[in-house]
Amino acid sequence: MTRADLADQASDRPRTLGRAGAEPSDCAPMGARPLLFVDVDGVISLWGFALDRVPPGRWALVEGVPHFLSVRAAEHLLTLSAHFDLVWCTGWEEKADEHLPHLLQLPVGLPHLSFDRTRDEVSRHGHWKLAAIEQHAGDRPLAWIDDALDDACRAWAQARPAPTLLVQTDPAVGLADEHAETLRSFALGMQAGR
After folding, report:
1. Which pLDDT score is estimated for 7?
2. What is the pLDDT of residues 4-21, one digit of tens each?
3. Domains by residue range for the chain, with CATH
4. Cβ(42)–Cβ(171) under 8 Å?
5. Which residue has better confidence, 68 or 121?
6. First CA to last CA distance, the chain
7. What is the structure's pLDDT at 116?
């Protein structure tokens, strides 16, 4: 696929959720930036788009698997890294930091979560990523961007005492302009509440 083949794809409006009535200063440790948990598949590595409406990006082979990587998502993450502490929250685990910074000029050395995907752990928390997110985040404010958020994620976000924002992406579009603006506003709200 050539650059001439790439075309912009219209993105859906962001679908966001967070704790009802959360004020930006709720439980925010002084001086701490909010965390941004970043999924890869469906956020940065896109799939399901129509071939006549390919989003801006490039194909890359990652450990023998082809991925279409969103250039726009990478640009947004670079901008958001000024407001958030980014954490890889993906089944790629450590592989995200091994490959994506070099392929998309993202920051090197971001922490990543490791997941216990046993049936008992998933049934206890309702979603396979929640236990690891909760353990890493503690009581810090956070945003989580993912294409596979479910009712368990939304219930967890509503119950957290710290400000929590969920942003769900369309895997054919990934991290879009509207999502980035929602995330930036959330982070600025945390700064204003300090």
Report:
1. 30
2. 332 332 233 333 333 333
3. 3-192 (3.40.50)
4. yes
5. 68
6. 47
7. 78
